[in-house]
Amino acid sequence: MSQQAILSEMNAAFADVIINEARCPVYASFFGAMGCAASIVLTVLGASYGTAKSSGAIFSSGILRPERLMQNTLCVIMAQILSIYGLVASVIISGDLVEKMPLHQGFLQLGAGISVGLCGLAAGFAIGIVGDAGVRASSQQPRLYIGMVLILIFAEVLGLYGVIVGILMLTKSKENLTTCM
After folding, report:
1. Range of 108's domain?
2. What is the largest CA-CA distance in the chain?
3. At a CB cut-off of 8 Å and minimum separation 6, what does 92 contact?
4. Mean pLDDT of 146-160
5. Residue 66 belongs to a domain with what CATH number?
């Protein structure tokens, strides 16, 4: 083997190490962990706001119409579904976290977590505000209950959109990866 061939092989191996180190830095898993945390923390914040805001209306309207108390808890149930969305996304993300991973995968996991988390937060705010006003209104006029339920469904779907986008991003994060050594 000539000296030129040996140098060529060494340069190729060295270039692979440099490319691998650039694509797989030690901090790549940090972004995935932050996506995991953002997903659960933000959805739980949205769910807690939706629960707290609509619960005040449920209890105050329960004094006026106690027979509608269980029917009006739909707002709280829908708010809690948002935290399940965040939990599912966090479990999926945490299952793919490893010490040495491509930066691309970490960024997609961060994006997926933020997508689920912020959509869950927005949906929780919407559910809380609609639940508060809707429960109070439907206690005075029961025919408004169906309209409140429809608006709550539209608010809940906002969180579901975030989960769908997050799952698509997590699926994409497993394709064509650099093998980290």
Report:
1. 25-172
2. 94
3. 167, 170
4. 95
5. 1.20.120.610
